[in-house]
Amino acid sequence: MSADDARDGDSTDDLNAFVTRETVEGDADGPLAGKTVAVKDNISTEGIRTTCGSAMLAEYVPPYDATVVERLREAGATLVGKANMDEFGMGGTTETSAFGPTKNPVDPERVPGGSSGGSAAAVAAGEADLALGSDTGGSVRNPAAFCGVVGIKPTYGLVSRYGLVAYANSLEQIGPLANTVEDAATLLDAIAGPDEHDATTRYDAAEGGAPGATDVPDDVHPADATEYAAAADGDVDGMTVGVPTELVEGADDEVVAVFEDALADLEARGVETVEVSLPSVEHAVQAYYVIAMSEASSNLARFDGVRYGVDGGEGNWNESFAAAREEGFGDEVKRRILLGTYALSAGYHDKYYEKAQDARAWVKRDFDEAFAEADVLATPTMPVLPPKRGESLDDPLSLYLMDANTVPVNLANLPAISVPAGEAEGLPVGMQFVGPAFGEEAIIRAGSAVEE
Amino acid sequence: MTATDEGAESEADAGVVDPDEVRHVADLARVDLDDEEATAFAEQFADVLDYFAALDEVPEVADEPDLVNVMRADEVRDGLSQEEALANAPDSEAGFFKGPKVS
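The joint structure predicted for all components is written out below.
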């Protein structure tokens, strides 16, 4: 991607990729020594404000580091700042940030994607070698695709969420962004692995081992037995790639054309492609939003203006609480809290939340069946090219539909990577590979073949 | 859209949402809204709930993973100091968080 050319005459400051610029040197040596890293602003950094892109936390300074930040420092990386994002991760364009939108370095009139838009823009513009984002329904892969960089959403439980400000715990994972698959995999190597502060990183043989990492003993966390960077070898000869027709049909023609060219290149390298079907994904976006909003309505109840955040002022507890939240939260956050409260309220719980859980189980089952026929699945990451800023903010539903290809992966707890597959109309198109649980090596291998 | 504590199963027509109903849910969620927000949300919620209604077609799917106990031993370990815990509070007094009166 010619990010450097596009940036001419448009200073990187103007991208608004960072909420806070501050440098913290890492340890002297380690696998990431000499590398600069941007960290999404919902990942806690001790002594450096962590805003989540929200006015609610404009002055919040965490008293501790997230586990991934500790691991970055131990690996020798230098933190260069806190990256801009959609408020609390709620958006796909980085336009809902209380600190203003981030521009796409490829075309400053367009959105960088989101919610980790600052992380992707910083990497694409050369403001950081690497970045961390978080992915609840596509928030690493979407901006990676729109900015023409690589992004990985790890299997649920591979990377610690300790210190990540929660939005929807059952769906989200912290993931790496970089200019190459190998760099992203190297960053994944540094952050992955069990953490006593996050019980969901505990890897347990009772779950039936790791279907995507069959060579790993059942009592070992897959991250402890795997070097992900080594899988970026481009050696896809003999690999079977499944193409879920439902997730290709919904994409724009120019996106599909780039996707199909990339598939043809893979076939030339010895990949066998097969069509697979995921009938449940028709309901994935609905299920995702019901679950994510429900979890958000509960998680964001902590912002009461007492322990941190905006002071709600005079009045009784309820009045003060409600005033703090009116002032501190933006529109999209309010929308999701309200819709989540509604979906969980008596009389509606069965209609929305229960049904969404059924759909989630159905999506998982569909993926299991597809992986009986293929090593990895491939789709366009985003069904559209990056929109212009301001085009879609007033129509929340149209923005939700943009997540059609990314949310099924989070519902099924699976790993996925987005890699640049080419351009259409001068804009980057991302290709997504989805793997079985803990099958990061397979998606990294497939992704590295596309970038060659 | 009428979220009541008694339930409203009969309100199958999710397509109609008025600003008062939005205000009721906002009240449950403890978020003040101005009139403009309540009106805009009513329109947007109608679209979104209409879309969610398609979940009706989803069949019941059994998903009961084996659950394992992940409790750790209950050992004393370092936590935040009182000073650190209070550092971000808008108001505190004598080492405590200071909140508004309860009623």
